[in-house]
């Protein structure tokens, strides 16, 4: 019998294939594990609104570590377990810097995925065209981010800036160094800003405390920069075969890639 009681799986590049689907083998492996009473949770930079396409695949999943740890969410009750909002004053600076660089500003909140219509319709300019269909369907459109933030105090858990090129992203990274933030990178030229100390790893610890699970009894699987902390924190950190070498170095095991059911392999091997 496995010693592990909780499996945390990233979405993009991990549970999802390159076409943003969950393969039948991976979906079946996840649901069979949930039937056995093991906690399987998604550990993702996405928010609640961005998971609606996978409701049926994850219908038995109780919890999620969402928005890169900014939100620990109970899917059954549809309520947050814990949420961490970005400081409003700092957020205004982040948005200003994004607009200054002509980047796509994207806010993730408890309920919404928020962006401007003009950016959604030109996502190819930000190397984000693979997400166009989802953003076009689920995003709340706003023209004035400042007004939205004032009307939804404490609700924004992460600010994404999708840049047009790497030099633009690097200029904003340098500007944000003066603020106390957790910053990560998941897409080609993006920058994700979360409250200080908030990562997928902190979300895993908070969820384990909520469930009474020892951190040593957890397995985390991921492929990107924002997975490094959780791979180091979990009892076993697993990198996907498609992860870059600088991510794999933090893992205790490397599984198959996301187009060859790497998550299913982890379940079959360790659970």
Outline the structure in words.
The protein is of the alpha/beta class and 271 residues long. It has 2 domains: 6-83 and 199-270, HAD superfamily/HAD-like (Rossmann fold); 88-195, Hypothetical Protein, Haloacid Dehalogenase-like Hydrolase, Chain: A, domain 2 (2-Layer Sandwich). The chain is 33% helix and 23% strand. It contains 11 helices and 14 strands. The chain has helices spanning 11-15, 24-35, 88-100, 117-120, 132-138, 145-151, 166-176, 200-211, 228-233, 245-248, 262-270, and strands at 6-9, 39-43, 63-66, 71-74, 79-83, 104-109, 113-115, 140-141, 156-162, 181-184, 190-195, 218-222, 236-239, 253-254. The strands form 2 sheets. Strands 5-4-3-2-1-12-13-14 form an 8-stranded mixed β-sheet, with helices on both faces. The N and C termini lie close together (8 Å).
């Amino acid at each position: 019998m496995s010693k592990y009681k909780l499996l945390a799986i990233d979405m993009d590049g991990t549970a999802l294939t390159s076409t943003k689907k969950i393969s039948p083998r991976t979906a079946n492996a996840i649901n069979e594990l949930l039937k056995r009473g093991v906690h399987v949770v998604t550990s993702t930079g996405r928010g609640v609104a961005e998971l609606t396409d996978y409701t049926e695949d994850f219908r038995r999943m109780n919890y999620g570590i969402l928005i890169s740890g900014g939100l620990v969410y109970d899917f059954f009750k549809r309520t947050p377990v814990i949420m961490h909002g970005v400081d409003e004053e700092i957020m205004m600076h982040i948005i200003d810097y994004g607009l200054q660089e002509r980047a796509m500003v994207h806010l993730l909140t408890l309920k919404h995925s928020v962006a401007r219509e003009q950016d959604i319709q030109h996502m190819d300019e930000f190397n984000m065209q693979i997400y166009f269909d989802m953003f076009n369907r689920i995003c709340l459109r706003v023209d004035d981010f400042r007004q939205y933030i004032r009307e939804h105090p404490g609700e924004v858990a992460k600010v994404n800036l999708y840049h047009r090129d790497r030099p633009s992203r690097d200029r904003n990274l340098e500007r944000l160094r003066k603020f106390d933030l957790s910053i990560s990178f998941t897409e080609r030229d993006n920058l994700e800003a979360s409250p200080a100390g908030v990562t997928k790893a902190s979300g895993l610890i908070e969820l384990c405390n909520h469930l009474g699970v020892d951190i040593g009894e957890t397995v985390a699987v991921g492929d990107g920069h924002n997975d490094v902390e959780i791979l180091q924190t979990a009892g076993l950190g697993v990198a996907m075969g498609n992860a870059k070498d600088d991510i794999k170095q933090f893992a205790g095991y490397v599984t198959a890639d996301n187009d060859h059911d790497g998550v299913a392999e982890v379940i079959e091997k360790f659970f």
